[in-house]
Amino acid sequence: MMPNSLKHRLIRWLEDNRELVVVLFCLPASFIFSVMLRVRGYLRRLGSDPQRHDSAVREIQARVQQWNKLPSQNRKLLCTSRPNWLSLSTKFFEKHLNHQVPIPLYDILELDEQNMTVRVEPMVTIGDITEYLIPKGYSLAVTIELVDATLGGLALGTGMSTHSHKAGLYHETITSYEVVIADGSLVTATADNEHSDLFKTLPWSHGSLGFLVALTLKIVKIKPYIKIKYIPVKGQKAYCDMIRQLSGTNEARPKEFPDYIEGTIFSKDEAVVMIGEYSDYDAKVPVNHCSRWYKPWFYKHVESLFRKGEKEELIPLRDYLLRHNRAIFWVVEDMLSFGNDTLFRYFFGWLLPPKPAFLKFTTTPGIRAYTFTKQVFQDIVLPIKELEKQIEIASQLFEKFPLLVYPCKIIDHGPSSGQLKRPDAKYLVPGTNYAMYNDLGVYGVPGRVKEKKSYNPVSAMRKMEEFTRDVGGYSFLYADIFMTREEFEVMFDLSLYEVVRKKYGAEGAFPHLYDKVKPEINVFEIGEEYAIK
Ligand SMILES: Cc1cc2nc3c(=O)[nH]c(=O)nc-3n(C[C@H](O)[C@H](O)[C@H](O)COP(=O)(O)OP(=O)(O)OC[C@H]3O[C@@H](n4cnc5c(N)ncnc54)[C@H](O)[C@@H]3O)c2cc1C
Ligand SMILES: NC(=O)C1=CN([C@@H]2O[C@H](COP(=O)(O)OP(=O)(O)OC[C@H]3O[C@@H](n4cnc5c(N)ncnc54)[C@H](OP(=O)(O)O)[C@@H]3O)[C@@H](O)[C@H]2O)C=CC1
Ligand SMILES: CC(C)=CCC[C@@H](C)[C@H]1CC[C@@]2(C)C3=C(CC[C@]12C)[C@@]1(C)CC[C@H](O)C(C)(C)[C@@H]1CC3
Questions:
Q1: Residue nearest ligand 1's atom 18 by CA
Q2: How many CB atoms lie within 10 A of CB 76?
Q3: pTM to 2 decimals?
Q4: Which of 280, 410, 450, 489 counts the most CB atoms within 10 A of its CB?
């Protein structure tokens, strides 16, 4: 056992020398960890066998049945045993207070080229599935930019990509969920079978309804490249209007309706709008392997186009899909100030990104407090008609650029159709049953913190959440939330969710959604303590 004083000194040292810790420990350790995961994934794929899936599911069912036999006072609420530090969430859900069930399901089960779907186990990652699908000429309809996100975690949380203005949120591309519910039975939920209520409430449920053991996802045909056009735009109204027009906010099928759209906002008045189409090789257009280790970080390349002007490039599809992986959008810049320097890139660029898993692994309580008080990590889904207001409020509260904008279709599935509230009629795209929203991504150290201007993280975030509720938007729940339960129930519609929890026995077996996604620390107390007066 390490003496307490030594332990405290070590923790202090780790907290005071984070950049050194990242370079000396996190980067090499995450690199070794990635190699090990790749080898493990490869070996697993060699031994892939649907029979094994059935027996692994029976094992999970048996564990849930055993849990049911425990005396009720010994029955802690159920959650998966996936270590929290592996999860892409800023929170540290306290798994040790719960009864953990292992879900060792990492296989891709079946590719159905006729119905254009793929059936997978929930722990398959975005990295695994892109590696599997792309050589076969397919991609997930909604694919995320971070290799570590799992297909199950995204299904029960939420996912969005630059194709979401056409495909909607990730869960709109799921055709069935196979779930072990609280009594240990296995149910398959689809949009039109007897479990359609479960189907509607599994997205945004964060494992509070049952254990996901398989899911079937829609795939799309691809071409080897994305022909991307970068359009630098000056003037807020000009870039907001352009994003709205191109994403189909004003009309269902505008003349120019690209497969991929993304906006990176560098200041209130400057943005680069990127539009992409699937393409074959075209000798007239330069190829950019933008995800290679020595290449400038993607958003830095995008920013440089303000000097260079409008440009067209061919990006190999895998490079495009993982374009934000190396710099974790722009998060790594605040951690490693020299990470995009040419020398660092050529010699050590292959070590990036630091695995979020390792960053979480080395997070002490002090750093955790820092993470939510001196940084902001938020993705918020808001009506795109309010884009100017979103930018105004976010820049006032956080003074943090770039901001990320992904347009996204929010489908109106009718009353009480899941946790997502119906979009307001005034936001519906004329002649359709959907409204155009967008993800607003705010990541990193707020300018107000860097400049030591007055900043209270709790009141800033609560103002942002209030705006989100007022316009009928939704906060991604991987991020820290600052809402009371009442406010949470204004943002999300829990009416069907509560019915489903009772019907499928989740009450008393799985934690409630709010309890699962609220920060594990007292944000109000810590927020006050760290506020910059
Ligand atoms: C967005 C972000 C995420 C980080 N996440 C991790 C992590 O998960 N694990 C890890 O080991 N290190 C993390 N760090 C720390 C990082 O590795 C650097 O050590 C640190 O940013 C630079 O510290 P400094 O003393 O050189 O500069 P400073 O001038 O002390 O800091 C620069 C800015 O970063 C903020 N900051 C400083 N230290 C931290 C910290 N530990 N966490 C959050 N913000 C900080 C400060 O508020 C300041 O605005 C993170 C830093 C940032 C900015
Ligand atoms: N572009 C995007 O849209 C991005 C989205 N994200 C967010 O990151 C998260 C995904 O990260 P990831 O690390 O893969 O997932 P997590 O491990 O964070 O899981 C997310 C939630 O789903 C639950 N869950 C996961 N698998 C199962 C299962 N098989 N059975 C029951 N519950 C399960 C977890 O419960 P438990 O705690 O019990 O394990 C947890 O509450 C999502 O919340 C997503 O919104 C992140 C990056 C990008
Ligand atoms: C819809 C879109 C584009 C979503 C992108 C979300 C990412 C930017 C988020 C998801 C998880 C995320 C919050 C994470 C972090 C950065 C931003 C991430 C990657 C980090 C690594 C930042 C540093 C933190 O100390 C900590 C390690 C807790 C988190 C972990 C999750």
A1: 19
A2: 13
A3: 0.89
A4: 410
